[in-house]
Automatic annotation (TrEMBL):
Keywords: FAD, Flavoprotein
Domain RsdA/BaiN/AoA(So)-like Rossmann fold-like stretches: 4-414
Protein name: NAD(FAD)-utilizing dehydrogenases
Keyword Signal: no
CC cofactor: FAD
SUPFAM superfamilies, sorted: FAD/NAD(P)-binding domain, HI0933 insert domain-like
PANTHER family associated with the record: OS12G0638800 PROTEIN
Gene3D superfamilies per record: FAD/NAD(P)-binding domain, HI0933 insert domain-like, Translation factors
RsdA/BaiN/AoA(So)-like insert domain span: 194-361
Length: 426
């Protein structure tokens, strides 16, 4: 059977595109090499599935995607957060809004989101094949003629969509096949890197702090002593570094700094934490003096415990070079200023990012200038479309990355179906 549209990848963008294209009348085949659809979707948000974010309109939301903002604007206007919520609520998934505008199912169960998408495929008469691994794309001139599956079967169609995702969460089956397919078709690939992941510090800088969680921390990223990014939010110390929403949101910039893309020469990459962001230096010093004066015979870390957890207070005192056993009343002016300096700029030297196995998403992918944002159609191969994480788009935590899948998948599905109508009329 010859199909109008063949889609590679049964993740969020692939399912949305397949359902939309089939809904508009196209004969659609969805190929998924794994044993089930939406494997990674079931893992998002700790299994709760943060489907989108409702804090901003399309224009403002697009800005959260950095250099991909202009590319994302069109698809967000066509199928943005409001449309995503309407899509799922209209199919029986009630939603709720949590801190930061995160939109989740009331059930806190990603399985209900997947059930809606599977039902959408069925209602749109999409043929789904599981365990269908694409091995080769057969190209002629500037068009794809067929796909060759692992068993040697040749699949033909009028249009093809790559929606294979990235390489994060390899346990879910993500292997980055789509990058190879797109490259074989002539597309340029921005080297994939882990994104929304934790940072690993040099040596044992975070030793003893594992599990500590802090709110309202101002985190600044420095490359060669030049500030290149800054944000405020929650952080969590890990066994070998730092995590938490604000750090994960900054991980793309960290990766670029480590790769030498922020500054022209190599050098140190650091995260500097303001642990007392609500105080300026002088006010914080006055607060510390008051704490030290209250109990001059206590250990100085006790004076910090109103500001910091005990383990972190002890680490600050140690890094300030204050000898063990020294009492608060014995602290010198120079030592006091070192403590305040550390509270305002607690520094971790970055060794690397945690790998793809711990990353929520992938940064990098198909170069956006080679894709039409109005249709997700390739500018290189006339009957090829691309959607989702395979593109060089990544956003912050809070539902922004699933929104990319919904928006680009919906636009691609619409475009592939309308192309069929155009060809029939022609």
């Amino acid at each position: 059977m010859r199909y109008d549209v063949v889609i590679i990848g049964g993740g969020p963008s692939g399912m949305m595109a397949a359902g939309r294209s089939g809904e508009l009348g196209a004969r659609v085949l969805l190929l998924e090499k794994g044993g089930g659809l939406g494997t990674k979707l079931l893992m998002t948000g700790g299994g709760r599935c943060n489907i989108t974010n409702n804090t901003q309109g399309p224009k403002e939301m697009a800005l959260r995607y950095g250099k991909a903002a202009r590319f994302m604007r069109t698809s967000l206007y066509e199928f943005g957060p409001a449309e995503v919520v309407a899509f799922f609520e209209g199919r029986g998934v009630k939603t709720k809004i949590e801190e930061g505008g995160r939109v989740l199912p009331v059930s806190n169960d990603a399985g209900y989101v997947l059930d809606v998408l599977v039902a959408y495929l069925d209602a749109s008469n999409v043929e789904v094949r599981l365990g269908a691994e694409v091995r080769e794309i057969v190209k002629k001139n500037n068009s794809i003629k067929a796909l060759i599956l692992a068993g040697g079967e040749e699949v033909t169609a009028g249009r093809f969509l790559i929606a294979t995702g990235g390489v994060s969460y390899p346990a879910s089956g993500s292997t980055g096949d789509g990058y190879a397919f797109a490259k074989a078709a002539g597309h340029s690939i921005i080297p994939p890197r882990p994104a929304l992941t934790t940072v690993i510090a040099e040596g044992g800088q975070a030793a003893g702090l594992k599990g500590l969680s802090l709110s309202g921390v101002k985190v600044a990223l420095y490359k060669n002593n030049k500030k290149v990014a800054e944000d405020t939010g929650d952080v969590i110390f890990t066994a070998n570094g730092l995590g938490g929403p604000v750090v994960m949101d900054m991980s793309r910039a960290v990766g670029e700094a480590l790769a030498g893309q922020v500054a022209p020469r190599s050098g140190s990459v650091e995260l500097r934490l303001d642990l007392a962001a609500s105080f300026d230096f002088k006010a914080l010093e006055r607060r510390l003096i008051e704490g030290l004066d209250k109990a001059p015979r206590r250990l100085p870390e006790k004076a910090l415990e109103e500001l910091l957890p005990q383990r972190l207070a002890k680490a600050v005192i140690e890094q300030a070079g204050i000898r063990g056993g020294k009492k608060s009343g014995e602290i010198t002016r120079a030592e006091r200023k070192r403590v305040v300096g550390l509270l305002k700029e607690f520094t971790l030297s970055v060794r690397k990012l945690a790998g793809f196995e711990r990353a929520f998403i992938t940064a990098g992918g198909v170069e956006l200038s080679q894709v039409d944002p109005r249709t997700m159609q390739s500018r290189i191969i006339e009957n090829l479309y691309l959607a989702g994480e395979v593109l060089d788009i990544d956003g912050p935590t809070g539902g922004y990355n699933l929104q990319v899948s919904w928006s680009t998948g919906y636009v691609a599905g619409t475009a592939t179906a309308r192309r069929r109508v155009f060809l029939l009329l022609k």
